[in-house]
Amino acid sequence: MNINEIARLAGVSRATVSRYLNNGYVSEEKKAVIHRVIEETGYQPSSQAQMLRTKKTRLVGVILPKINSNTISREAAGISDILTKKGYQIILANTNNDIEEELKYISLFKDNQVDGVIFIATILTRRHKKLLKECKVPVVILGQLLEGYPCIFQDDYKAAGRITEQLVQTGNKFGYITVTDKDEAVGQQRKAGVVDTLARYGRELQPKCVKTGDFTLESGYEAARELFQEQGDVDTLICATDTMAAGAMTWLKENGYRIPQDVQVAGIGDSPLGKILEPKLTTIHFYYKTSGMEAAEMLTSLMESGNGGVCKEIKMGCELVLRGSHRDPVKSK
């Protein structure tokens, strides 16, 4: 089955079918006939032929740091929901937090291999920024704020501040498990939110009470071991992610600490893991799936406008989720 046969069955010219397939003007009557014939025959136009005519691939590259992360999977689900509805296919590029892999995929996608790119970013180096400037297709950054680019990002500073405000009511000595400062959002902004909020309450996050993990359960476990072996009087622990908080709670319980009586613990991110811990984890909820949807909407607008569109920055909201791993200020009085 080809376009000529569709035209013959529909009783219209080949040019009319071509206009229909490429969203050109066709009368409503002829549209209905062509649509019926295509439905009955199961005809699918050649994607290669369409690409040659329109110079569009209908492909979107999504560069992500870790495909088995709950955060990333929620963002990817939101991206997929929107792009699929709009007729795009997705090429997922999983980099396993390898900067060289990220750079390789940006280089691959930048010269019209795809119609646009969503880059779920963690660390943005000079090499990243150089390659992004060379991109000939629209790029949306998800998860970080990068000046001059359309961005969707979380209010990491506010999130960390809100969880700290809750725990400072019943906490005396604070510990914090962070990630690398090269990650501006999770590493820098969340730590700054904790430090500044404690300062407003006349408290201090001592440098010796800060340990660094790498987002994993295992790193949270090891960071907690190191922290509490050195600073056994810490009674409040905030972790930059729920996953690291889960690892920390495991170490604490294995070593006889009661949660929250001896040590109250909180994470950030509201992953499903936090809901099955005992006690359940107090945390901050981010709207990750909505963030992915917003990124996809922004990218499709840029791809379809043809002139670059407006460069938007969207800071997402967050919500405090109180469960059982923190001390209740009312009961503590």
| Share of β-strand residues | 15-25%
- Tell me how many strands there are: 12
Low-pLDDT stretches are: none
Helix/strand structural class: alpha/beta
What general form does the structure show? elongated
Portion of residues in helices? Answer: 40-55%
What is the count of helical runs? 13
At CATH level 3, the topology of the largest domain is Rossmann fold
CATH architecture of the largest domain: 3-Layer(aba) Sandwich
The major β-sheet equals: 6 strands, parallel
CATH superfamily of the largest domain: Response regulator
* Computed Rg: 25 Å
Q: How are the strands ordered across the major sheet?
A: 2-1-3-4-5-11
Count of distinct structural domains: 3
Mean pLDDT: 92
What is the H/E order? HHHHEHEHEHEEHEHEHEHEHEHEE
| End-to-end distance | 78 Å
The CATH class name of the largest domain reads Alpha Beta
Quaternary structure classification: single chain
Question: What this model shows, in words?
Answer:
The structure is a single chain. The chain has 333 residues and is of the alpha/beta class. The protein folds into three domains: 3-54, lambda repressor-like DNA-binding domains (434 Repressor (Amino-terminal Domain), Orthogonal Bundle); 59-154 and 288-316, Rossmann fold; 156-286, Rossmann fold (3-Layer(aba) Sandwich), CATH 3.40.50.2300. It has 13 helices and twelve strands. A six-stranded parallel sheet has the order 2-1-3-4-5-11, with helices on both faces. β1 (59-64), α5 and β2 (89-94) form a beta-alpha-beta unit. α6 packs parallel to α7 and α8 (156-167) runs parallel beside α9. The model has no long low-confidence stretch (mean pLDDT 92). Keywords: DNA-binding, Transcription, Transcription regulation. One of its GO terms (molecular function) is DNA-binding transcription factor activity. InterPro entries: HTH_LacI, Lambda_DNA-bd_dom_sf, Peripla_BP/Lac1_sug-bd_dom, Peripla_BP_I. This is LacI family DNA-binding transcriptional regulator. Residues 1-54 form the HTH lacI-type domain.
